[in-house]
TrEMBL record:
This is Dynein attachment factor N-terminal domain-containing protein. It comes from the Eukaryota. InterPro entries: CC103, Dynein_attach_N. One of its GO terms (biological process) is determination of left/right symmetry. It holds the Pfam family Dynein_attach_N. Residues 8-72 form the Dynein attachment factor N-terminal domain. GO terms for cellular component: extracellular region; outer dynein arm.
Amino acid sequence: MNKLSQNDVSAMENQLRQGLEEDKKYWRVNDVKCDAIHTAKTYEEFADRVAAAHLRPLEKSDYKNKMTRGWNQYASRDKERDE
């Protein structure tokens, strides 16, 4: 029997990780489909919910790390130079 090389082991690990990610994605989309099939009012709403299945809800920490930079950061620099 041939022994597995390090490249073979790392290739199998990559295949396993990829398979696990695909499986997680499948079940996440399937859960959204099962929920949306009973609650969506139109097919468009159903399709939108399935298309957004990969998104995660925002957490409170996402709001805390919000940037306070304005829309046009260069305009505020010009005001500072004029003064």
